């Protein structure tokens, strides 16, 4: 079965915009992280889709492997920062994390 | 056909992740999105990437995110719900992105590019798995990014452990 590459790119565009929507509208830091993970997945989908046409080199798949590695490292550090911020401010709401007077 | 089922599943659960206000529901719908993306990887002849997606994202990042949700919200009161801001502007920006990207993808006529004309049959050749080729590539052409990635993981591990330590008690 042949999947047209446009359909994969459209799916990836929709996933990317859902991730952007989560980053913009959500105010809980962990949900913003989930949106970023969705954006990474959309980018990976494009890389793997084009790697299908790269006969022996598999450059797209290798690049997406490194994207997954960097995403895992980013998630670990970001969640550690979120936990520290929660211990300090007693909230993970990004709008309430501020040391200046409102 | 299977591709469209996985794509619909990914889009619906991704949209539910944005629409719901409950953090735990958002986490579990992200799980379904990641699983269907792994299924799409299998359909795109990327078996090793699919297994890596399952092990790293579903087994690692998602569990980490669920831990983060449970440690950073008081489940007793309403703070497990996340508040929405900028809904109009966010929907506008996301809609513009998806419309612009879809327009350019449909206009670009990508599938007529000359280097995309190879069929999937000779992509894998006579071997049925990409694992051997990825292993050879990681140890020859991509050995420098591979080593840098290992260094990055070590640094991220130490940094996360250092940041998360409660220094007042130690």
Q: What is the name of the CATH architecture of chain B? A: Up-down Bundle
Q: What is the tally of helical segments of chain B?
A: 7
- Biggest sheet of chain A: strands, sense, closure? none
CATH class of chain A: Mainly Alpha
What is the CA-CA span between the terminal residues of chain B? 57 Å
Largest sheet of chain B: none
The overall number of domains of chain B is 1
Notes on the structure:
- The complex is a heterodimer of chains A (102) and B (170).
- Chain A has 102 residues and is mainly alpha-helical.
- Chain A has a single domain (5-89), classed as Helix Hairpins (Orthogonal Bundle).
- Helix content of chain A is 74%, strand content 0%.
- In chain A, α1 (5-25) runs antiparallel to α2 (29-51) and α2 runs antiparallel to α3.
- The model of chain A has no long low-confidence stretch (mean pLDDT 89).
- Chain B has 170 residues and is mainly alpha-helical.
- Chain B has a single domain (2-82, 123-164), classed as Up-down Bundle (Four Helix Bundle (Hemerythrin (Met), subunit A)), CATH 1.20.120.1200.
- Chain B contains seven helices and no strands.
- Chain B has helices spanning 2-19, 23-43, 47-71, 87-108, 121-124, 131-139, 143-164.
- The chains are: A mainly alpha (102), B mainly alpha (170).
- The interface between A and B is large, with 75 and 89 residues.
- Chain B: Keywords: Cell membrane, Membrane, NAD, Quinone, Transmembrane, Transmembrane helix, Ubiquinone.
- Chain B: The chain crosses the membrane at residues 24-44, 56-75, 87-106, 142-164.
- Chain B: Its EC number is 7.1.1.-.
- Chain B: It is found in: Cell membrane.
Quick gist of this model?
With 102 residues, chain A is mainly alpha-helical. Chain A contains three helices and no strands.
């Amino acid at each position: 079965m042949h999947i047209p590459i446009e359909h994969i790119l459209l799916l990836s565009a929709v996933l990317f915009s859902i991730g952007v929507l989560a980053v913009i509208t959500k105010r809980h830091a962990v949900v913003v992280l989930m949106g970023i993970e969705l954006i990474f997945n959309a980018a990976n989908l494009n890389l793997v889709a084009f790697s299908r046409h790269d006969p022996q080199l598999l450059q797209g798949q290798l690049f997406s492997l490194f994207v997954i590695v960097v995403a895992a490292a980013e998630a670990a550090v970001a969640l550690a920062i979120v936990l520290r911020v929660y211990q300090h401010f007693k909230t993970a709401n990004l709008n309430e994390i501020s040391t200046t007077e409102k | 056909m299977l591709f469209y089922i996985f794509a619909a599943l990914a889009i619906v659960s991704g949209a539910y992740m944005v629409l719901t206000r409950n953090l735990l529901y958002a986490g579990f719908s992200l799980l379904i999105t990641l699983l269907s993306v792994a299924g799409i990887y299998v359909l795109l002849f990327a078996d090793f990437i699919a297994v890596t997606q399952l092990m790293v994202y579903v087994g690692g990042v998602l569990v980490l995110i669920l831990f983060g949700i449970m440690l950073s919200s008081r489940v007793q009161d309403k703070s497990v719900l996340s508040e929405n801001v900028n809904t109009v502007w966010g929907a506008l920006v996301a809609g513009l992105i998806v419309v612009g990207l879809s327009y350019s993808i449909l206009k670009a006529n990508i599938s007529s590019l000359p280097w995309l004309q190879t069929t999937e049959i000779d992509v894998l050749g006579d071997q049925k798995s990409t694992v051997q080729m990825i292993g050879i590539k990681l140890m020859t052409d991509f050995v420098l990014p591979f080593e840098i990635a290992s260094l990055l993981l070590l640094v991220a591990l130490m940094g996360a452990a250092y940041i998360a330590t409660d220094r007042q008690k130690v």
